[in-house]
Amino acid sequence: MAKLSIIGKKKNGIVKLKIVVEKLQKSLSLAKKPASNAHDFERVTDSTGVPKDVKEGYFAVIAVDDDELKRFIVPLIYLTHPSFLRLLDQAAEEYGFNHDGALTVPCRPSELERILAERWEEERGSRVDVNLGLVKSC
């Protein structure tokens, strides 16, 4: 019985991940022209265009906590990290899935930096050549 519960949770997590990936792919495919100023958070979050600093295989994330916000460019591989997936669950609960612009997560930017560094350290420990660990904050 416990095995069924674990399998159900894994399937639920995979379904949520698939929804997020589909949303990201849809927003990337709808892009007509990039935002003119990548540091203008309102323009980036309101725009369906992909800014020039978001390369293929990456996505933009904005960490928001009260009045503090910071934008990050993150490799897609981070979508499998458990702590990042928990943030996505929180974002889905707080903001829903139907909004335009960059992915927004409800956490302090310093907390998102910690999560991204944690994943980077995991990659670094398991591989000699780490090109995926380069996360850029804006």
Automatic annotation (TrEMBL):
Gene Ontology biological process terms in this record: response to auxin
Protein family membership: Belongs to the ARG7 family.
PANTHER family on file: AUXIN-INDUCED PROTEIN-LIKE-RELATED (PTHR31374), AUXIN-RESPONSIVE FAMILY PROTEIN (PTHR31374:SF16)
Full protein name: Auxin-responsive protein
Organismal lineage: Eukaryota, Viridiplantae, Streptophyta, Embryophyta, Tracheophyta
Taxonomic source organism: Actinidia chinensis var. chinensis
Highest taxon of source: Eukaryota
